[in-house]
Amino acid sequence: MSDQARDILRTVFGFPSFRGEQEAIIDHVSDGGDALVLMPTGGGKSLCYQLPALIRPGTAVVASPLIALMKDQVAALRQMGVDAAFLNSSLTPSESYQIQRAVRESRIDLLYVAPERLLTEPFLELLDEIEIALFAIDEAHCVSQWGHDFRPEYLQLDQLKERYPGVPRIATTATADGPTRKDIVERLGLQEARRFVAGFDRPNIRYSVVLKNSPKQQLLSFIQGNHPGEAGIVYCLSRRSVDETASWLSEKGLRALPYHAGMGAVQRQRNQDIFQGQDGVIMVATIAFGMGIDKSNVRFVAHLDLPKSLESYYQETGRAGRDGLPANAWMAYGMADVVRIRAMLEASQAEDSHKRMEMQRLNTLLAYCETARCRRQVLLDYFGEDLPEKCGNCDTCLVPVETYDGSQEAQKALSCVYRTGQRFGAGYLIDVLRGTPNERIPRFGHDRLPTFGVGADLSKKEWSSLFRQMVAGGLLRVDLEGYGGLQLTAAAAPVLRGEEPFQARRDPSGRAASASKARPQATFEETPENQSLWEALRDLRLKLARRQNVPPYVIFHDTALAEMVSRRPQSLPEMLTITGVGQTKLDKYGEAFLQVLEEASEEQDQAESNTSKNLSISAGVL
Fold first, then answer.
1. Helix crossing, 67-79 with 265-277: angle to 10°?
2. Is 186 helix (H, G, I), strand (E, B) or coil?
3. Which residues pair with 63 in a beta bridge?
4. Average of per-residue pLDDT across 539-565
5. d(Cα 479, Cα 486) in Å, to the nearest integer?
6. 258-291 b/e with 16+ CB inside 10 Å = b?
7. What is the DSSP letter of 210?
8. In this structure, what is the dihedral angle of CA atoms 611, 617, 621, 622, given to the nearest 10 degrees?
9. Residue among 174, 196, 197, 446 nearest 319 (CA)
10. In the predicted structure, residue 309 carries a pLDDT above the cut 90
11. Nearest-angstrom CA–CA distance, 537 and 594
């Protein structure tokens, strides 16, 4: 199948070669094999079932969780000349009928449906009438109760194996830790499927974590300093925080829109369409937004609140830089986030086993926030992948974190927690340790404790950091049933007795690691002429996209435009060598983009000619 696959890859999708294990996956599925594919966001998962769908006879059926995701993928495929369609609630009865008719007449190569529709008897009866090329289960982590986007409707997809035993199935996801992978295999009946686990590393993303201090202002400084006029996503934990942050950023002159489940469906869709269809828009959202987003040129993802796990964090930050160009994952983190998320977990109606698993995941996330190691190494360790060398592209690599033996300080703090009755928060405990005048301390008699004033040599900020690290390290826990006081855990005892050391990190006191500029221009020389051409190509792309009511990036990704700027193709055959330019797109848009390139070359030639004349005149005068 490889020769045919390579030909389709070049002529339809416009790519010169496969990446990673794409070719092996495509050959395996095209030959009728089942597969479980774990590949990072932007790594080319969709191609692993889209290309076999064009090789195998019949219609490929793709179970996709969100309407927005279906629309974007179908729009992108149609731009390439692929006969793709979707069936969902956004269609009128007449539109739905026309698509089903096209399916029966074998005129559709890929059909996207929600799992709820896929398993209805009318739809299954439709499938019984046609030849099915394959089943693709996109965002397969939704099948797992441990997954970050659990969808109970996915649980019944194992019926496909029984009803259509000869049809290959491919399940794809960007993130799945051990328990999630096991769930996917068991619930979808993929025990015999070949497993492809690509590397989880996204080297184009720079990871940074800052201590929360005036978070909205910190966010604004980050955006203005690194991503002015560029698209990004800002995640907040609550709907109220989303609304307030979006409004505040708008007041500061940024194009920011809110998105959360408390908004009306029409307004949510409107904001999503604006984000998808225009450049430079910032979406401020809860985690209700994102899984269905296929926008390639999101230059940053920021978290103003902690996500619930490292798996969720990886999934959410992976929405940045899908085009492979530089992007940023920036997060502000503080103790209040830890208390709030733990309180939410404790208050949930989930089973105790689920709560324990989620608490372990939260602790892993806290360890990531507090690490002095390379963040990329910690992140990849979580998914069972080893990165031997430091990445050199995260905040702890760019501005190394100082560590020290904090055993004595930890003992003082833990002793203070114990002697004050394990019922006070960090602020009060720090006042006791530093001997700070406080009317409450004499009232409780804590000014007579041996720990009163023993920590006067450290600042309040330094003690706050230590308490935060001890909570993250599992030595202390927050009493969620009382008034939020800190309590010792079993892990505190050996540190308190001096049997185990406590390695602490010093929070950066100076300038933090600057974020990557993350500009598409990183792929071509930044000259006034190139910048002018870049903007002209983007303007043409936007005009063509608006004419067809599709997002600009389904015309061409930023990477394709940047390659045009760098290589300056002068003919249709040369244009066909640009990554992302297949035959159908060449036929549709080749002449228009060549005209812009030609005009830019003429302007540059004219400018050079004028410069040459001026130099000659100057030489004559001299």
1. 30
2. helix
3. 113, 137
4. 92
5. 6
6. bbbeebeeeebeebbeebbbebebbbbbbbebbb
7. E
8. 50
9. 174
10. no
11. 10
Average pLDDT estimate for 468-481: 82
Neighbouring C-beta atoms of residue 117, cutoff 10 Å: 16
Secondary structure (3-state) at 539: helix
Low-confidence winner among 14-28, 168-182, 334-348 (lowest mean pLDDT): 334-348
First-to-final CA distance of the chain: 70
Distance CA(333)–CA(425), nearest Å, equals 18
Amino acid at 262: G
For residue 480, what are the CA distances in angstroms to 236, 339, 342, 431?
Answer: 22, 8, 8, 22
Q: Would the pLDDT of 517 be above 60? A: no
Per-position DSSP letters for 372-433, written without gaps between them: -S-HHHHHHHHTT----S--S-BHHHHSPPPEEE-HHHHHHHHHHHHHTTS---HHHHHHHH
Amino acid at 232: G
What is the reported pLDDT for 519? 44
Q: Measured between alpha carbons, how far is 313 from 336 in angstroms, rounded to an integer?
A: 18
Decide which of 230 and 341 is more confident.
230
Q: 542 CB contacts (<8 Å, ≥6 apart)?
A: 279, 552
Mind listing the pLDDT tens digit for each residue in 96-132?
999 999 999 999 999 999 888 898 999 999 999 999 9
Residue 611, C-beta contacts closer than 8 angstroms, at least 6 positions apart: none
Strands 403-405 and 503-505: antiparallel
Ranges assigned E (strand) in 432-561? 476-478, 486-488, 503-505
Name residues whose C-beta falls within 8 Å of residue 113's C-beta, 6 or more positions apart in sequence.
Answer: 61, 62, 63, 64, 70, 86, 87, 88, 123
User: In the numeric block, which tokens belong to residue 230?
Assistant: 């560029």
Distance CA 594, CA 607 (A): 20
Token representation of residue 190: 């993929």
Distance CA 534, CA 517 (A): 17
- Two tokens, residue 506: 């010093």
